[in-house]
Amino acid sequence: MGEKEPTKDESFSSLDDNWETDVNVLSSELAELDNDDKSEWMRLLGVVMKPNPLDDWDQLYNLNNQCALRNDCRKLANELKNKRSVPELESFLTLYCKKRGVDYTKDFGWLLILEKILLLNLPAAHEFNVFFAFTTKYIPKDTRPEAQIFDVFRLLLQYHDPQISNHLEALHCSPALYTKNWFSTLFASSMSTDSCHELWKIYIEQGDPFLVFHLAIVFLINAKEEILQVKRGEKAQAVQILENMASQLSVEDVPDFFQLALHYSEKTPECIRKDFHYIIFGANFDEEVKEIQMNKMMCLPIPAIDLTSNDEISSGAVNFFIVDTRSNADFDSGHFVSSFNLDCVAIVDEPEKFEIALNSLECYKTSRRAEDHYLILGYGSDEEDNYMNMLIAMFIQKGKAHVSFVQGGYKKLHDCIGQHNRWELIAMHSEERCELCHIEKASPKWGFFSKMKSAVSNTSNRMKERVEAVVFPIGDEKKLEDKNHADSKQRHGKRYRQQSVFTIDENSDEEVTAGAAVDENPKEEILLSKEFTETFECQEVFRDGSINGHIALTRTHIYVLHDVPGKQGYVTTEARHALSTVVAVTSRRSVPEMLTFKLGYEMNGTSKITAVHKLYVPKAGECAKAVKLAIYALRPLPDA
């Protein structure tokens, strides 16, 4: 009763004050979130602590193309509705050109990028550093029509989708016509401001400039149906389709769009990104690039050194299926481990038999190594590799994806293996029959490596008996009975029965591999590390004795390792085989600890053995089980 009732006006005044307080709190929170987002841009580009260069420079407007720069700044000021003055923009771009040591170039994409960055409303003190870091880290330096970047993109598009690549080439629609603006502005020329900002943010979060190629590939593949309908002589229509595709990308679509680009990035050999990264940064590799002449390449080049520096025949997440196109005789004189021979001279001499051999090879790959990418290996000489180029052209014409070749061929591969002393990567190597070894012996500059190979050649006889050439023969018309072929009543949707590779053989009398010679120049010693998923002590048995060692497993391969005498825990790699090549593992009832591993492949239902290892394994049961589980883990799931 003693309290005064508030009047109507006072009540309204009290509500209004509370509402205004809530609005102020909300506005403060939104501003804080916006500032956090802006800070993220500066943090990701590494410019948070950098001073503003515009605060201290000579202010001399003396570029060779200063007038053109000033005129373009007037246009940009109009686009920004004069929120930025022409002198301010001219100072910005003049200093930018001086910092990079270049003259201003019209239509290079800088204005569009600067416009998008200024629309982020970043703190003025950080705008120059953000623009400078973004353009130098993520925008290619050279996007002229003849630039190498378009050759790389052509090869990448062909690698992932040769059908659309072939069609665009038939339209005479070169990558420079439809990707120049994409690459020079990182899609700023084709997308809305909000979509562009979202794309850029995810892009710099990934920190990989090479993704610009895969983003462009996603646009092309999404427009594939429309592009394939474009007829010859109408390339302008194809360019228009792609420009419209980019402009239709909404903010909500950007994350999914980026995930697709990451998918194609993972399906690209990692060495491609590493070796051609300079195209994004413009590093000092120009002379080397001119020698490569990528505009004349038929498919992606894989450096030979990439195959010799890794423990796996792969590049990143990509595993290679190596096809050696040299003659059968050259292949038998030495070849890269796990490679398959396809003598391509028969393309001209015996086309029908070559077709049979090629079909056999493709059937084997489809059934055993379907996810692997084709890697074609030739001699490394333009004259001798004409037949290899025919095979590559055949694959491209058929629309076969994921085809690349070994740059420098077997010659370069042979040199790299010699330089790194990794002769275990060449199977059946014979210095007497190897022409490359004879050439190196006659050359004084390779004298050191010739001596090194001479020391290693003491083990070549043992290697020849242990490993038989993996060849898809041409001209052998003898047909063997397919014992594993299923009767039509027994198929039930599956073409062949799968026979277990693990058996007990009472009369296992395979010839034991040759005695172990002591290397004058030993193989590289490595530590028996945790990189192997399983290891088992064993003794490898030869005709004249045995050597202590280990069987080791990774997710995809089985290794035979020999212990290094006097150095506990250290081993040398004597053999390395893909688990998919394990044809049989047998043991004797009388000596169950003696395991015989047969390696090879199947062709037309017949097993061809390429290597045999006899190993005495104290824990033979556990070893066989581990190998079995590893093999089954690689097999595709059965049909439902």
List the SSEs and their pairings.
Elements: H1 8-44, H2 66-79, H3 86-100, H4 110-118, H5 124-138, H6 148-160, H7 162-170, H8 175-185, H9 193-206, H10 211-222, H11 224-228, H12 235-247, H13 254-266, H14 270-275, H15 278-281, H16 286-292, E1 300-303, H17 304-308, E2 314-315, E3 318-324, H18 328-332, E4 335-336, E5 340-341, H19 346-349, H20 351-368, E6 373-377, H21 386-397, E7 403-407, H22 409-419, E8 426-427, H23 435-442, H24 447-456, H25 460-466, E9 502-504, E10 526-527, E11 534-542, E12 545-553, E13 557-563, E14 570-578, E15 582-587, E16 594-603, E17 606-616, H26 620-634
Kindly report the spatial arrangement of strands forming the biggest sheet.
9-15-16-17-11-12-13-14-10
Strand content: 5-15%
The biggest beta sheet is recorded as:
9 strands, mixed
CATH architecture of the largest domain: 3-Layer(aba) Sandwich
Number of helices: 26
**Low-confidence parts, pLDDT < 50 over ≥5 residues?**
6-15, 25-33, 283-291, 444-499, 506-521
State the total count of DSSP E strands.
17
- CATH homology-level superfamily of the largest domain: Rhodanese-like domain
Report the C-alpha radius of gyration, rounded: 32 Å
